[in-house]
Amino acid sequence: MTSHNPIASVGHAGLLVALVASVYAVMASVAGARRGARRLERSGLVASYASTSLVAFSSAVMFFLLLSNDYSVKYVQMHSDASMPWIYKLTSFWGGLDGSIMWWALLLCAFSSLAVYLNRERHKELLPYVVAVLYTVIAFFIFLILFEKRPFDVFLTEAPRIGKGLNPFLQNPYMATQPPSLYVGFVAATVPFAFRPRPVIPGNLDDSWFASPPLDDRLWEFLLQGPGSVPWGPTELGWGASGAGIRQKTRFLPGFPPGVLAPI
Questions:
Q1: Measured over all CA atoms, what is the biggest interatomic distance in the chain, rounded to whole angstroms?
Q2: Which of 10, 151, 169, 262 is the right S-S partner for 75, CB 3.0 to 4.6 Å?
Q3: What is the mean pLDDT of residues 179-200?
């Protein structure tokens, strides 16, 4: 098998274009808001949707590579195996650090586009700044994926014929759902964060600062599904009664940082 993989190259190219679109969305949104150029603002909005679509496309490419057992891609070979059930092949997407950052970026893009779309009429004056904040964060993660983690890298020599498989500790139904749940909670917190400067940036210094987007109250449900809130420990690690106590005492920890920072 040669080192060239056109499918992986397409996935990598999608992320490259997504990075360009994200940077343009940030620059066009801020410049349009500062100059009062509505067409420039709209172009930034379109670029934000394009960035989300491209990240979703590249993620779909990674899912395809995992399900097709394409071991010419290093990430697939290191975290998947043909003998695994298909559900754990999908879990392999966030089973390694490279893929988990890509999964984080995908969720962040989805939440960002949804928040921008739902507030396109309610917060027109603030929306360009919200787009700028959200897609600055997204651009950072895409940059990290492209130039540090590189999940679409392929073997330069002949590819292995078998995969190493997913970490056995992660081949558990609870671990197939618990990390995405935590990710949803942490990623969703970026949305209310992007709306926090709304009374300051446009200059409307009123009590709207205290109002929280509806998402503020719902992300806790995902954050509180922490490492101690699922029976993964007793099943995989053999925890006893002391383990149950640890789970109850630590289940609130994922929600602690946002809880401390919420009043800021």
A1: 64
A2: 151
A3: 75
